[in-house]
């Protein structure tokens, strides 16, 4: 008998073919083969939202080949990805090839290894119609919003604009954060740090001012108050009045789910969410490993479940025992609870290496680049999650001087546990504890320095891709497969831009968001959107009808659209131009930033009287170390930021490293920042220093 297995991609087909052996043909559908038409709505709103699917243009030859191969086969298995999107591709394939969707012809692979493929093929099932309907409902909802709302934006703002159901919420989050930053009023405060050492010891440590000697916290809000405390402390003895010793355990982070993988890859590797998922897809579908052949290196990468199979746990603990010793193995089975607002569907495991014994060092003999970096991250996080806790002895010291109290805390690692392999990165700058010298209660310490430092409260930080994904997840917006497309879409539409890895709304984005807030508040409401996601989950688990779910949304949306048309009859909103400091040499006006067919450029606001335009460049304030020209921020063809001299091509100096305001102590030239150091790029100078943390 001949059996045909259809997957989405050639890479996946190649890996699966290896495990199936004779009697099987494996081919790829190259993703979706049918969809709603691109040129029209494609949904019969008046007849229960019936979708009008058509074959995707350009896939005629492929569809013909699939039909021919299916006709020759005795049995056809649909082996697309194990999620809503994969179920939809299988449903469309079944209809196109004339397969019975109630037959057991659907197989899924949690991992593409010999074991994963064998298990998947051994348990065929019928197409999950509820899972398909959840995908279909999402697709129809997004189409209704996009195709009904976009023409409205064309008429009221400008042509070419579009709006999306979930993307609009993401834009609102970014705009709201920008408004918080703009409205923020910094407040002054002062830190008082005492540098101390025990008697007869040169080891110094820092204690920070806390408050009164009785332990009441005091806020130091101005220089006069700070200097008054310094004066009060002149000649005072610094005495250890209380010591608290303790022991604590630090627990490893759980294995990755889609959102945490995207966040950690952003923080550690500087990957965008799209770049992360591209590399993860390759790792899942399979790569050639020397001595092992073609295999999938990780389990399915679109998941919100933290579950891990007993077999994988056993494999991890076996590796840990051999590599680190028995003490490094977690003595109990770790279970992790999801922190996201979306309840884990538990259809898949967490993201983990499919073969825990395959170390990154071994894998990197066969793989490189993004996939090697991401595999090391996934492998390390998973293995660490099955290791024992990190154990620390802690000490907290209360130090009294005059009528005031200072405090210092520190810890000593007594057993490194999982930290021997991996620790989770964080977005926030945490207060670092340091090891304290041996201290005794009642001990008088030697004051080495008392340093008052003026500080100001800081506004909330702009979103990065990592923090935006975390916010979307915590608020229940989107699902594992949607985080990367959401960010890509809002940037591509020009509503948001990246500025040194931070996400900043454009004037166009703010204009559209204001209009949406006024006329379509539900669309950009976080709670409403999260509720919509939960309704789609109900469709998936069979507790809600997909047509009724769409109808409940569409009636309100259609009414809002009709009202907006009346409210804005005869009105048009102008997107404000972004003014620059660049002066038009023809008429003296300040030039503005415009967006054209090939991107942004500078234009004179006096058009049509003045038609002057220029290439858009951003002056960094730095000077070229070769010729003294202005250092300009530029972008490569792939959108990567670099810095080049304004006198190019006569001067060819360029660098990926950012110019800073600080100048060289030796020669006065502009310094450049690379990691945690600043350096002078002027030939023959060689000056270097560390970045000033303050």
Helix segment tally = 17
Largest sheet: 6 strands, antiparallel, barrel
Q: Could you give the order of strands across the largest sheet?
A: 8-9-14-13-10-15
Contiguous runs where pLDDT drops below 50 for at least 5 residues: none
End-to-end CA span: 72 Å
Q: In total, how many beta strands?
A: 29
Mean pLDDT: 92
What's the overall geometry?
Answer: globular
Radius of gyration equals: 30 Å
The residue fraction in helices comes out at 25-40%
Strand content: 15-25%
Strand pairing plus helix content: what structural class? alpha+beta
Describe this structure in words.
With 694 residues, the protein is an alpha+beta fold. The protein is built from 17 helices and 29 strands. The strands form nine sheets. The protein has a six-stranded antiparallel beta barrel. A four-stranded antiparallel β-sheet has the order 18-19-20-21, with no helix packed on it. Strands 22-23-24-25 form a four-stranded antiparallel β-sheet, with no helix packed on it. Helix 5 packs antiparallel against helix 16. The mean pLDDT is 92.
What topology does this entry show?
Blueprint: E1 3-7, H1 10-20, E2 24-28, E3 34-35, E4 43-44, E5 50-51, E6 54-55, H2 60-72, E7 75-78, H3 84-97, H4 114-122, H5 129-156, H6 165-183, E8 188-197, E9 205-212, H7 223-232, E10 238-250, H8 258-269, H9 273-285, E11 287-289, E12 293-295, H10 310-324, H11 360-363, H12 369-385, E13 390-401, E14 404-415, E15 444-456, H13 465-474, H14 483-492, E16 496-499, E17 502-505, H15 507-519, H16 526-540, H17 546-567, E18 578-583, E19 590-596, E20 599-603, E21 613-615, E22 618-623, E23 630-635, E24 641-645, E25 654-655, E26 658-663, E27 670-674, E28 677-680, E29 688-690
């Amino acid at each position: 008998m001949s059996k045909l297995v259809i997957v989405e991609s050639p890479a996946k087909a190649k890996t699966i073919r290896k495990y199936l052996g004779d009697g099987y043909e494996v081919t790829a559908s190259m993703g979706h083969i049918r969809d709603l038409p691109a040129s029209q709505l494609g949904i019969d709103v008046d007849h229960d939202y019936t979708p009008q699917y058509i074959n995707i243009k350009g896939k005629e030859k492929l569809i013909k080949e699939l039909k021919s191969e299916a006709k020759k086969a005795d049995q056809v298995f649909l082996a697309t990805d194990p999620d809503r999107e994969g179920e939809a591709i299988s449903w469309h394939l079944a209809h196109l090839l004339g397969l019975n969707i109630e037959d057991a012809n659907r197989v899924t692979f949690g991992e593409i290894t010999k074991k994963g493929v064998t298990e998947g093929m051994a348990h065929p099932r019928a197409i999950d119609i509820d899972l398909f309907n959840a995908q279909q409902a999402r697709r129809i909802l997004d189409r209704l919003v996009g195709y009904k709302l976009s023409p409205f934006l064309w008429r009221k703002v400008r042509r070419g604009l579009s709006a999306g159901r979930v993307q609009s919420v993401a834009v609102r989050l970014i705009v709201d954060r920008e408004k918080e930053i703009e409205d923020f009023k910094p407040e002054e405060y002062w830190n008082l740090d005492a540098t101390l050492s025990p008697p007869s010891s040169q080891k110094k440590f820092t204690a920070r001012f806390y408050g009164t000697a009785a332990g009441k916290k005091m806020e130091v809000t101005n220089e006069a108050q700070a200097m008054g405390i310094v004066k009060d402390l002149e000649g005072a003895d610094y005495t250890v009045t209380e010591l608290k010793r303790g022991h604590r355990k630090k627990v490893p982070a759980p294995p990755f789910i889609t959102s945490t993988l995207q966040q950690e890859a952003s923080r550690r590797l500087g990957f965008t969410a799209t770049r992360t998922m591209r590399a993860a897809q390759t790792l899942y579908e399979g790569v050639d490993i020397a001595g092992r052949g073609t295999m999938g290196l990780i389990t399915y990468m679109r998941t919100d479940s933290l579950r891990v199979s007993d077999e994988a746990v056993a494999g991890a603990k076996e590796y840990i025992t051999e590599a680190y010793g028995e003490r490094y193995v977690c003595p109990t089975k770790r279970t992790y609870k999801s922190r996201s607002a979306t309840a884990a569907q538990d259809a898949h495991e967490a993201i983990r290496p499919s073969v825990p014994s395959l170390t990154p060092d071994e894998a990197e003999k066969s793989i490189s680049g993004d996939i090697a970096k991401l595999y090391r991250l996934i492998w390390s996080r998973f293995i660490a999650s099955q290791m024992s806790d990190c154990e620390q002895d802690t000490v907290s010291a209360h130090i009294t001087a005059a009528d005031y109290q200072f405090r210092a805390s520190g810890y000593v690692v007594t057993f490194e546990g999982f930290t021997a392999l991996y620790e989770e990165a964080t977005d926030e700058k945490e207060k670092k504890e340091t090891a304290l010298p041996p201290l005794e209660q009642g001990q008088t310490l030697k004051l080495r320095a008392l340093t008052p430092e003026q500080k100001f409260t800081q506004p909330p930080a702009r979103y990065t891709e990592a923090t935006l994904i975390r916010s979307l997840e915590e608020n229940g917006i989107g699902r594992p497969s949607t985080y990367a497309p959401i960010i890509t879409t809002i940037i591509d539409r020009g509503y948001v831009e990246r500025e040194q890895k931070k996400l900043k709304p454009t004037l166009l984005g703010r204009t559209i968001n204001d209009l949406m807030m006024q006329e379509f508040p539900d669309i950009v409401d976080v709670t409403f959107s999260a509720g919509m996601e939960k309704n789609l989950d109900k469709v998936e688990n069979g507790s809600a009808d997909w047509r009724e779910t769409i109808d409940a949304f569409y009636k309100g949306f259609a009414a809002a659209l009709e009202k907006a048309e009346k409210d804005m009859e005869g009105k048009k909103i102008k997107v404000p131009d972004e003014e620059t400091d660049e002066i038009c040499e023809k008429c003296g006006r300040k030039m503005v930033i415009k967006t054209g067919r090939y991107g942004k450029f500078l234009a004179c606001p006096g058009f049509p009287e003045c038609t002057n335009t220029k290439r858009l460049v951003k002056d960094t304030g730095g000077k070229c170390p070769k010729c003294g020209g202005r250092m300009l921020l530029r972008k490569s063809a792939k959108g990567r930021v670099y810095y080049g001299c304004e006198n190019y091509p006569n001067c060819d100096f360029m660098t990926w490293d950012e110019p800073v305001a600080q100048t060289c102590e030796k020669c006065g030239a502009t310094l450049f920042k690379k990691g945690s150091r600043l350096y002078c790029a002027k030939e023959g100078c060689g000056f270097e220093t560390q970045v000033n943390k303050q």
